[in-house]
Amino acid sequence: MAEKRWVFKDTIEPDAIDSLSNSINVSQPIASILLQRGVANFDAARNFFRPSLDMLHNPFLMKDMDKAVARILKAFDSKEKILVYGDYDVDGTTSVALFYGFINSFHFDSAFYIPDRYKEGYGVSKQGIDWASENGYSLIVALDCGIKSNQLVDYATDLGIDFIICDHHRPGDSIPNAVAVLDPKREDCTYPFKELPGCGIGFKLIQAIVNQRPTIKVNPNDFLDLVVVSIASDIVPIVGENRILAHYGLIQLNKNARPGLKALMRLAGNKKELTITGIVFGLAPRINAAGRIAHAHGAVDLLLAESEDEAYHFGEKLNIKNNQRRDFDSAITEEAVEMIANDVALINAKSTVLFKSDWHKGVIGIVASRCIEKYYRPTIILTESEGKATGSARSVPGFDVYEAIDSCSHLLDHFGGHKYAAGLTLDIDKVKEFKEQFEAVVSETITEELLIPQVEIDAKINLDSISGNFYNILKQMEPFGPENMTPVFMVEDLYLASSLTVIKEKHLKFKVGQTNNNSTFDCIGFGLGYLANEISQDMLFKMAFNIEENEFRGITTLQLHIKDIKFD
């Protein structure tokens, strides 16, 4: 196992730490962490610890919002048929459930459309537009897709269909000629927050519609359980508006979730209060499974279900698909890792690009992530679909895989995505050239440091700093996620305070103490069993960890969740 590099967050001036610590009455390590996260004074701390929906930006600050609202209200008044169109992943299906659920409660000439991953591919499709035309739809509202669908929007216009695009992906060289294009990542959009997911853009649109038409008696906040699921699943930064939406979305999810999400929580065996991590590992894979294995229509049906019995029926189907997805995922990951291990050039490369025509298209993004766990570098997994090579890219922290793919765009039919995840399609006979070009681009632009897994450490502390009160303040920093991660601490001069146990041959469990104080804590290190032979009773070591609660036989204690151990 390669040694990880420990990266310490920027050191904060002691005077600034003292000032914040005194003004909000928290310990110095917590003040330091808050300052690293941009919380520099009492007012900023109040906003951080007590987020309010009143802090959300005016939706009309978003470019084209006025045009989008005017066109939708015209469609309501004229009783036009509106088609809500969205992608097949979690952000897409929650976006569709949100917007279709909103308009269908009072405007009955509406339907929703999710493209078939295997027949139509990602985003807006010609088949979808043709279906809209054949069925008399004059307005399409596309969510979580469409920002690069210039030609298809023109095609729809020729058929007499207007388009409104609500997207959060990076635009291409030109913006589609739609009635309205809502995307904070447009260069000409001055909306203050750029990182909303697609479902978040849909939420802002609903806010704006209700603002302009108060006779619509629907509360946009009723959809926040869907918004938080998209925020967690699309791995967007949990800062700014996303943090406020996620905070209130989690409250709704845990207290009054819609039947579909309740059913998924039950099927995921969720007994504790759901967190962002719980959504990522419990709900998201089940919602995603619909579009990965069959058709994502099933996920939207689940999210729109009106009763728990109906929802549970749909949920059980998704659970079966999720189990199938796991089987595909494991088998293909094994094959992919073996392909790398048996190829000297690939072992020594700075990137991974693999193609196999019979891999299941629905799980290649997951396989790319799994390959990064084993071979830590930007990775693209490709399979054959509709006579083309199509694939998913994933990256390592600090490396913009979207930019790297953009540098090879002359070889591609199309691509789209984010800094750390993207999708692409190209001719099969260009795969070899693309692989060479991508490797050249990555080799030129990635640093050696970025190819070593890192543990980012927020603060160095002593064990006796950790208390119930200390942990309770940390908990108030939730929801945790990108750009507001669970704090990682480092403690030096540690020793074994109990015998060391390896659970299921791979997990490490022991009690730890520190030479300069009397505090001891239980520790758990998942997947760190290989370190068991390196730690002995008479040695000192340092450890990076999160602090968490552990409940056992009705008793709750604090334990340290080990990220890494280093020996002096």
Describe the structure.
The protein has a five-stranded parallel β-sheet with strand order 3-2-4-5-6, with helices on both faces. It has a five-stranded mixed β-sheet with strand order 7-8-9-11-10, sandwiched between helices. A five-stranded mixed beta barrel has the order 14-16-17-19-18. The longest helix is centred in the middle third of the chain and has 34 residues. The chain is built from 19 helices and 19 strands. The two termini are 18 Å apart. It has 568 residues and is an alpha/beta fold. Helix 9 crosses helix 12. Strand 13, helix 19 and strand 14 form a beta-alpha-beta unit.
Quick summary:
The protein has 568 residues and is of the alpha/beta class. The chain has helices at 14-24, 28-36, 42-49, 65-77, 90-103, 126-134, 150-158, 198-212, 224-233, 240-256, 259-267, 276-293, 297-304, 308-341, 344-347, 364-374, 401-406, 431-445, 468-475; strands at residues 5-8, 82-86, 110-113, 139-143, 162-166, 180-182, 352-355, 379-385, 388-394, 414-417, 421-426, 454-457, 459-460, 489-496, 501-503, 507-514, 520-525, 541-552, 555-567.
Using brief descriptors, characterize the structure shown.
568 residues; alpha/beta; 5-stranded mixed β-sheet; 19% strand
SSE blueprint and pairings:
Blueprint: E1 5-8, H1 14-24, H2 28-36, H3 42-49, H4 65-77, E2 82-86, H5 90-103, E3 110-113, H6 126-134, E4 139-143, H7 150-158, E5 162-166, E6 180-182, H8 198-212, H9 224-233, H10 240-256, H11 259-267, H12 276-293, H13 297-304, H14 308-341, H15 344-347, E7 352-355, H16 364-374, E8 379-385, E9 388-394, H17 401-406, E10 414-417, E11 421-426, H18 431-445, E12 454-457, E13 459-460, H19 468-475, E14 489-496, E15 501-503, E16 507-514, E17 520-525, E18 541-552, E19 555-567
Parallel strand pairs: 1-12, 2-3, 2-4, 4-5, 5-6, 7-8, 13-14, 17-19
Antiparallel strand pairs: 8-9, 9-11, 10-11, 14-16, 14-18, 15-16, 16-17, 18-19
